[in-house]
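notes to self, project folder thing:

trying the whole complex as one job this time. last attempt i did each chain seperately and stitching them together was a nightmare. two parts in total, labels are on each line so i dont mix them up again. if this works i'll redo the older ones the same way
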Amino acid sequence: MRSLVKSIGFKIFAVVMAALVFGAVLATATHKYTSPVTSVISFVFSPVQRLSAFFADKLAESEIYFKSSASMAKRVSELESQLADARGQLVEYEDAKNKLSLYEEFLELKKEHSDYKFESCSIISRDAADLFGSFVLNKGEMHGIKVNDPVIYGKYLVGLVVSVSKTQCTVRTILNPDVNVSAYDIRTGESGFVATTPELSRKGLCRLPGLDRTTAISQGGLVCTSGVGGIYPRDLIIGQVTGIENDNENISSYAVIEPSVRFSELKDVFVLTYFYGQEGTAGDGQ
Amino acid sequence: MNYLIENKNTIIRRVIFVFILLAAAALQGTKGLFPTPGNIGVFLIIPAAVSIAMFEREVAGLLFGAFAGALWDTYVTGFGFNAMFLTIVTFGAGVLIHYLMRNNLSTAMLMCSLSMLLYILLYWLFNYVFKGYGTAMQVLLKYYLPTFLYSLVFIPVIYLMVRTVMKKFR
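result (full assembly):
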């Protein structure tokens, strides 16, 4: 044991560990929540992530065919080729349609809020260990993205940036129990904080707790961000109320909310890098 | 420096190991690139890093571990937890093979599965239990345990791949 501790291997181990711990401390101190080691690695290897995301997309578009060896094989092959072409075009059409709809909503939002500054980003990876759907985007500090910037899809709220390196950033969605969003029901004006629990998150739902048992919020109501706190701008759509439940822990009720975004199908999002009233910016009014 | 770079074969071997780690990170971190039944995940980086450390022993092993962990951190929140975890685990694997254990498939199964189990338990404790979520046990049984069992299947494949590279470029 003593020889192990005195060995060069152990000394290198201690140095590497010290460097990693120092990196973690620095990540916290600078409020970027990304270690310098991770920043360097992500800068160097981000093309690999983009490439793997590209292949994953291509893989999702393709299908595996088992070809016949009979006399019709040639004909089948021709038809398969035509079908594959048609499917390819259909996929491209669907992609273009989705992007068009996203950009239309984005344009509308941009017209309504001229103060907003956006950065268009693509999702390049997701964490296998995280059940709540966190993902990594292909842009970071170099593109003006900061920790706590809201992430949107059209007019819909997706989540917020929780860590940022030079070339990429990590996003926590509103399906993560650690994320709270100040919100209000647009019909009744009742407000509170939208959050979720691991149970609801598994079902793809959030909740607006702390409502009176006699709340006027009802099924079908639309819940939007209220802008309180300066993290999210006002009036981004969070989701629709699917029901009102009584809280077992106290005498209040909560509204169950189904987010308007299908998080597992997201490929591209926008990061809101500036809006009037954003916390910690010149326009926050502080 | 001579300690790490012994000859041409060593360099080629280590470059291949870097590519294996890059592939493992990409397959694990990119949704839709690797088949995962029933919405569970898969851990490929841990078995890849531990298998490499078993052959490269403690010094090069821990450096590969730190690299693999830092690479993994780029796919998640980059605090450096994965880099620290894999540095410790790969150093441990290298030392155990050097001083105590034999380097074979059974040992690889044992070391990789224990490492994955330790990672899952730490992740689960920090992210569910310590935060007081009532469904922590349900999450462990329905997500992390199936993910662990599914990942076990790939340990022999990864270990044999690393062993083949090692034999070819010894």
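what i see at first glance: Chain A has two domains: 63-112, 117-286.
need to look closer tmrw
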